[in-house]
Amino acid sequence: MARDKDADRSVRGKQGHQLGPEAKDPTRAVVIVPVLARQPRGDDESSRPRLSRSADARHDEAVGLASAIDLNPVHTAVVTVADPRPATLLGSGKVAEFADIVKERKAELVIVDHPLTPVQQRNLEKELNAKVLDRTGLILEIFGERARTKEGTLQVELAHLNYQKGRLVRSWTHLERQRGGAGFLGGPGETQIESDRRILQDKITKLKHELETVRRTRDLHRAKRKKVPFPVVAIVGYTNAGKSTLFNRLTGAGVLAEDMLFATLDPTLRRVRLPHGTPVILSDTVGFISDLPTHLVAAFRATLEEVVEADLVLHLRDISDPDTAAQAEDVERILGDLGVDAADTSRVIEVWNKIDLLDEGNRERLLAEGASGKSPPIAISAVTGEGLDTLKALIETRVSGELETLTVTLSPAQLGQVDWLYRNGDVVSRTDNEDGSVTLSLTATHSARQEIESRLHRKSGS
């Protein structure tokens, strides 16, 4: 199954990324989406098989990844692979077919939306006469362009170097690998490879040292936040689920939020005051994606520690996406790798975003299905604001306890606490007494009630 696109179609944004020569037009690319006939099971035989993602969804995601770095997909195709070839992944007939397409469309780059071994990548480049990037390499390129902070840049560079370590042989195939005769010394090719590996390893060691310094700094910041005990709420989800849009809606921040895969890479933290005055730290994290390269999971562990350390995790799902169940499973697997149990409903809240994009029938059906569970998800629209009051109320209940009703009387010496009570509770009624005292009836969270009692006790005892 192939999907041709107009060769002259331009994609949004600036010129192509560093993958192609500097030119005014975006780099012309052919996108191939191999679909294996036999779906792989999990990491062990006892685990259940992964949910099958539709070919259309995989195709659209691959094109979205290519467009995320301003490539021009001049031809895209979904290819069923019944028997993966060790040398090229695809069969010889398909390889020859794509070689003709690359030549006809004058493509400079071929994207294969599947992990490739170094041998497969080298053989495909030779047969197709174009640069080849697999899914891992493409995601690394996107992350490299998106990184803005020093930490993000270091993490991407480290991941890229680890990815390149096993592929150095591709650059030196023109040199002999072994010297002839009875000598035991390697030939010039082997010498060059070893030299390059040492250079790469030195760079990797240096980057790890720099990232360790960044990690220690992040730990210090986290320790400071714990001294002022603001709960941390992390937003996680599949890329393009709407995390940054929700973050902006809740905080008023100006984080980049576009309909683009990996629009945001570097984490952002903001303090938010919830409806009953509870302050929390909200964290926007990098989007997850299926088959996220292990190099990236390892390199971004320092950033993802914000998720591990969070008091509450919001798992945001694009409920309008036909593949939302498979996307949710991918996110849950990555959370599990980080040590976060997605099934722990006391710590993880499932949030269904983009309900405004559903028609009435699907909306009612999905909401009914969600309501039948033990811990119903919260349905919202980060764009329209629908459901956000319910979400904020639930967040506040989880981090500060259920709302309680109480009545307090402040003596004239305690009137300085009135403003704090108004900011940290809902004042239902107020009575100004003849002796100068004030009686307030209010609702507040359990933790706010404890703080109120502590403040009044300290004030009366002083």
Automatic annotation (TrEMBL):
InterPro entries: G_HFLX_dom (IPR030394), GTP-bd (IPR006073), GTP-bd_M (IPR032305), GTPase_HflX (IPR016496), GTPase_HflX_N (IPR025121), GTPase_HflX_N_sf (IPR042108), HflX_C (IPR045498), P-loop_NTPase (IPR027417). CDD domains: HflX. Its main location: cytoplasm. Residues 1-58 are annotated as: Disordered. Transmembrane segments: none annotated. It is found in: Cytoplasm. Keywords: Cytoplasm, GTP-binding, Magnesium, Metal-binding, Nucleotide-binding. Residues 231-403 form the Hflx-type G domain. PROSITE patterns: G_HFLX. Residues 1-11, 40-58 have a biased composition (Basic and acidic residues). GTPase that associates with the 50S ribosomal subunit and may have a role during protein synthesis or ribosome biogenesis. Monomer. Associates with the 50S ribosomal subunit. PANTHER family: GTP-BINDING PROTEIN 6-RELATED, GTP-BINDING PROTEIN HFLX. Belongs to the TRAFAC class OBG-HflX-like GTPase superfamily. HflX GTPase family. This is GTPase HflX. It comes from Mesorhizobium australafricanum.
